[in-house]
Design brief:
This protein is an alpha+beta fold and about 150 residues long. The chain contains four helices and six strands; from the N terminus they run ββαββαβααβ. The N and C termini lie far apart (about 35 Å). The model is unreliable at about 140-150 (pLDDT under 50).
């Protein structure tokens, strides 16, 4: 008899759709997305401009909610959270590292992450991030410049 191994999922998106409306016009940024990310995995999301990468990260990070579908993080359906609960989720659970925006421009990405250590309770371990960035520039050494707009870390 084979024993079934259950792999823990840190992120699971189920039939997620995100539609932005401007007047009578609609833009479908995501359409029926299903995604599972296992705990402990390093995942890269690549695609052309307008493919929905930032929208996907914003949903997983609790910066936005889907039009339809579920966003489950560590067993919790955050797509059902109200704004207050989403704010607490963002503060305690997830961290965004913006490569070009929302950072102190005189600091490298690593220095911006280190700054977070003095401001937040549950901080990103700097040793985890260091392997992905060049020592001198603080920029990612794994991906082309145009693909490094933002990073999300749990």
């Amino acid at each position: 008899m084979k024993e079934e191994i259950t792999v823990a999922k840190i992120v699971e998106l189920k039939d997620v759709t995100k539609v932005y409306k401007t007047g009578e016009r609609e833009f479908r940024a995501l359409d029926g997305v299903d995604l599972s990310i296992e705990k402990g995995k390093f995942v890269v999301i690549l695609g052309p401009s307008g493919a929905g990468k930032s929208t996907l990260l914003n949903l997983i990070g609790g910066m936005d909610i889907p039009t339809t579908g579920q966003v489950v993080v560590d067993g919790e359906d955050i797509s059902k959270y109200n704004e207050d609960k989403l704010s607490r989720y963002r503060a305690a659970t997830v961290g965004f590292i913006f490569q070009f925006y929302n950072i102190l421009p005189t600091l490298t990405v690593l220095e911006n992450v280190e700054l977070d250590e003095s401001l937040a309770e549950n901080v990103l371990k700097i040793e985890f991030v260091e392997d992905f960035f060049d020592d001198e520039t603080g920029r990612t050494n794994k991906y082309p410049v145009h693909e490094e707009d933002s990073v999300i870390v749990f």
